[in-house]
TrEMBL record:
It comes from Bacteroides reticulotermitis. This is Uncharacterized protein.
Amino acid sequence: MRKLLCPQCKIAAMYVKNEQGDRLLVYVLENGEVVAKDPEASTEGFDLTDVYCLGCSWHGSPKRLMQR
């Protein structure tokens, strides 16, 4: 399944935060699912409704990401 891209800089690498401010590296798949980059990591406790781009200053809803 393809990964969605940042609408600003066109990379797929994102992260999400939890209440403590910890970051988890993620990708957003074309079906809108947010998955951890590390398959063994858990997304539990992280806010999956707001993703942050690793390449630029963009952040927002995973629904705003774009396909290739």
